[in-house]
Batch of 2 targets.
Target 1
Amino acid sequence: MAKHLTTREEDYSKWYNELVVKADLAQNSGVRGSMVIKPYGYAIWEKIQADLDRRFKETGHMNAYFPLFIPKSYFSKEASHVDGFAKECAVVTHYRLKDDPNGGGVVVDPAAKLEEELIVRPTSETIIWDTYRDWIQSYRDLPILVNQWANVVRWEMRTRLFLRTAEFLWQEGHTAHATKEEAVTEAETMLGVYADFVENIMAIPVLRGLKTEGERFAGALETYCIEALMQDGKALQAGTSHFLGQNFAKAFDVKYQSKEGTQEYVWATSWGVSTRLMGALIMTHSDDNGLVLPPKLAPYQVVIIPIYKGEEQLTAISEVANGMVAELRAKGVSVKYDDRDTYKPGWKFNQYELQGVPLRIAIGPKDLEKGTAELARRDTLTKEFVAQSEIGTKVPELLDAIQNNLFEKALSYREAHTHEANSWEEFEKLMKGNAGFVYAHWDGTTETEDKIKELTKATIRCIPLNNKQEEGTCILTGKPSTQRVVFAKAY
RNA sequence: CGGGAAGUGGCGCAGGUGGUAGCGCAUCUGGUUUGGGACCAGAGGGUCGCAGGUUCGAGUCCUGUCUUCCCGACCA
């Protein structure tokens, strides 16, 4: 069966190409580093969107939409922001094509050169803050709690399916506040929203923490993040929430008049998650049979497959199956009854395993006689026969059990791949073996962080929130340290 | 942008020293099948990335060019 997928130790990008194409999730579109998300994959993204969007609204946010094109001049206003994104921007320079005078094709019309180039947004801070200036005059206009669902483009040197595509779908929240405290609280709240979603819906355990100065978002004073561990021992940043201070307010001159009548710059946050979450989902739960989806994200939680010979058997089975569909739907379970006669049962079994459908029910002639159905779990690959009358109670129970099992499995994997290093030798050895998360002392300087990256490819993934304080010495320099930070190789 | 590798039916590949394109999967037709990706028989589908050159003859040799992938620097 492993013919579809290479083993976990092998290169994941190869593994993805196999999996996603066969699993109908996505494929390369032909545009450099971009991808087509196929219907089944998009259905998973829609589930992610729907759940997150509900959480955003519950925390007081509203959706809005800002332009795709950003005038180049906007970018020069916040210095560190430019530094962070300048090297990976797609730029629009012309607005018209014309027939090629030398041949049959078309060429860019040189007469249609734009006065000012437009940048395809790599993120929307600049255009949003330019807009916020007009929205904010008084403390009564604050806070502004806005989210945008959009696509962005980052012309990365190297891309990787789902994890780093040139164009990706995401949401970006951009908030404006009267006080520093309120903005910090917002950034922390949204990190909590992400962490809760990723753990409870995606069944992926995450570390919550702060980025070091070197890993911080371009333009942020503080970057909060959630970090997950993949099956190959590499870390993946699954979401970030930034406290931007007054950097963007100052760059775009966004001030409000306080109760006391003074002019004050507003405080900002931004936060986002992307289709990268789909990569995290795949790489956390999948096995050699394909995807494994947590029930709360599965486009369909249960698939029913009839096993029959001839029209009469199918009719009899369909009657039972349709009864189950109705019963399960009434309980809020999403069900697909696949009675296509163009594919055989065995083919369907494999197909839905590849797609990660949590539960499969098979009904055949023997079941009709005995009043049973075969119930198979995707996560454990176990099968049992259940009385048809029990399906309605058994299925919701099992879906819960699968959801929990996936999280527990991922959590114990992470625990088994979390270590402490107390010397440089120990650290190097762990990193050579793709050990996962390694807690170690660090002297707090960017130079040391860079040096460690150069020597081992490991970076500081985060300084955990509420981190335990303990005396120690930096594994590289031996200088004093007050806490351990989390190192790992990352995507 | 540096360092490697590759472009041949939809996908994956084979095609020593040049001789007029083949295999597996997929697709289509007919039949037998249907409790873990069925089997048999037949069929369709390719200007070999592109442009030149050498040659009686180029998938193969030469030159140029484009693209993609992998390894670095960059990153949600």
Target 2
Amino acid sequence: MSDVARLAGVSIKTVSRVVNDEPAVHPDTAERVMAAIEQLGFRRNLGARNLRRGSTTGTIGLIVEDVGNPFYSELNRAVERIATSFGRQVLTGSSEENSDRERELVLEFCARRVDGILVVPAGLQHGYLVPEMRAGTPVVFIDRPAGDIVADTVLVDNLGGTIEAVTHLAKHGHRRIAFLGDSPDIFTAAERLRGFREGCVRNGISYDESLVSMRTPTQEYIGDAVKRLMHGPDAATAVIAGNNRVAVHVLRALAHAEQRPAMVGFDDFELADLLDPPVTVVAHDVSALGHAAAELLFARVQGDQSPPRKVVLPVHLVARGSGEVAP
Amino acid sequence: MSDVARLAGVSIKTVSRVVNDEPAVHPDTAERVMAAIEQLGFRRNLGARNLRRGSTTGTIGLIVEDVGNPFYSELNRAVERIATSFGRQVLTGSSEENSDRERELVLEFCARRVDGILVVPAGLQHGYLVPEMRAGTPVVFIDRPAGDIVADTVLVDNLGGTIEAVTHLAKHGHRRIAFLGDSPDIFTAAERLRGFREGCVRNGISYDESLVSMRTPTQEYIGDAVKRLMHGPDAATAVIAGNNRVAVHVLRALAHAEQRPAMVGFDDFELADLLDPPVTVVAHDVSALGHAAAELLFARVQGDQSPPRKVVLPVHLVARGSGEVAP
DNA sequence: GTGCACTATGACAACGTTGTCTCCCCCCGG
DNA sequence: CCGGGGGGAGACAACGTTGTCATAGTGCAC
């Protein structure tokens, strides 16, 4: 900046005035300064600016399990859209479902003085956030609640959705329904399992633990589980996939099966409608999830001090065929 | 920091020493400082630190068309992985295929003093980058080259891949092949079209412009194109989809067709193997693309001054069934 | 006892900006 | 001719850190 000032024959303050469009600058001077800026390729340092002004940095942090997962990337996109509309930029990070990594990312973002943080939490301990939140960094939890603190949270109706899935299958005559979920340490997985039990109860189906399997989904593990649950005299006639990745693994495991069991997935996914049969899913609006969370965050950024809110977004069952197969 | 210093009864310099793990601090003093830091919830301001040290900011910028598109989110993930291994964080932005937006994002990132920029360019004019690059911000172009400047670039073999696709279909007896691509303003789309023509030539197929359609893919437009090209006496017997989105639209348009033409897609996509018939694609390793670009960027960040490089990654045809259908 | 090396700490400036205050000059009214 | 007002510009401090240098105290060898 001082280089620009020297070249234009003015003080650095005047350069500052020009780059900030302040009024009290003579047009001729402004033009000289602009020319110097152009010539030197000067670009003002936003870090220094934010430091001096004590203003916000114009960034927010988003932490998800994996930015490469289509579910989270759709979330990312929705968040980015809102952030852009508020003139903010987004720092992203993948926690890899690892709470230490999550913590690291959050604290790093705080050190960068992001204006707020959106997080799909990996762990159950969020005490480390208390000082940061007290220091004025708003945090909104997405898709899963905070472990041990009270904070803004946006969730989907995992319980209701899974109950609906069970009811749908029961309506089509199924009494032996398998449930394949992600690790029960994950809130959504546990909640959907709870919905599964509740759905069984409501539909007069006796809950059979041997038809349930909860683990981090890999193709191998899901393949084994499908083989085990879908065969034998007591085989399940239908399966509920606890999330999009489980669903894909189940579909792949069943790709060459002669008799495909009925199936309902939780989470919609691209091409579900083009498979044979098309996959019935409990769908929810991932964009709406990101929207709601980002809107809530920016309300906080702009000073909303009301008590922490908990938003639960609705889900709806999309019947496409795979869930309407008879036992 | 001065609050911490006051509480611990030391100077701020000593606090600085403690937070930086500098050796010459008495353990007792360090402990007092740590306690004060804990008590006050102090976290050092990375912005100020970077300003003072004149060091890098520890961030890189990534600009893609749409972070929500699975293709780009996989890229994002690969980039993040490398960035993390270099201790950097990633600022992301979606250009929405709009060159003004791209420019805005790039300049904003530069103002934030990112250590480097990875960009899937939207436009063809990148002169605006020259001053930034001269000022020391390395830029690597991904998936498409820069319009009018020389810069590091990582591409995939669009030309070869499309030639391979045509040859594959020709081998299976097809002589009338349709090509549906994205807008020809996009480098990859134009390049693949070029590959299509070249493929026709090499296989002794007369290139028929009426079988080609290049436009931003929407379900409606692709549906119309499919209807037009696949019917009538001179109908195409096979179709090449120019990218993953075109492929999905084509599949949807053909979902209820009685006679499905042969099809090959450019870009692999999830579940392609589970459709009926499974979709033959020209696949390339998106992670490798991100990896290569990020590695190249960090080499520049660390001072590599060698002439701009152009890396072209190989593609390979994955025959799954849809491309092996007879005419 | 003096000099020296070493440890632990602090004072101060500087990074690149911008807010505040001050100054100068010119124009206009009386 | 003088005083006041306003437009245009600069000097200086400050934002939160850290690098450099200085200082005070301690222990040890001569």
